[in-house]
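Example record for the data management plan.
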Amino acid sequence: MKEIIKKKEIKGIFASILLIVLGIFLIMKPDEILKTLIQVMGIILLLMGAFDFMSYFKMSDEEKLFNYGLFKGIMELCIGILFIFRFEVLTSIFPIVIGLVVIFINIFKLQLSINLKQIEAPSWFIGVMISTISIILGIVIILNPFETVKLLVITSGVIIVVSEISNIIYSIMILTQLKKITKVVQEIISEE
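Corresponding structural encoding:
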């Protein structure tokens, strides 16, 4: 039991150290991480596209009638190529799309909140405030897209580093109290 806990915590510390390195890289090199993520997604799309494209030609004629595998495969291949070789376009468009999605979703929520006011629901004002703030944040994302993504990547790095430092501290606490934990577990087992 003691060895199992010890191995688990040591593996946890090792994983946390790797994640801290990743977090530091996210903080120090957000542009490169974004570029790499987009290119990895491009490679995945290329593989999926090649599979869908080839699968289409292996289908029976009946299956081809109601299958869009050829079109889907070609689209995935094209988008994959775009992701790999024109990633800079995607880094500028991606936040704009996200910003528009945030705005549209919250316009609907704003309308719902206003509708709730008409039926005198008590929480309508909170909905209006949250929706309005979210719409403003969506506009900020659109007006300053690359910095927003960069900030998001950096923030993710900071969160990972803080979280994993906390995990390491917790694992060290477990390892230092291993005798006590083992004793308590054995007492619980013997009582049953």
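Summary line stored alongside the record: The mean pLDDT is 80.
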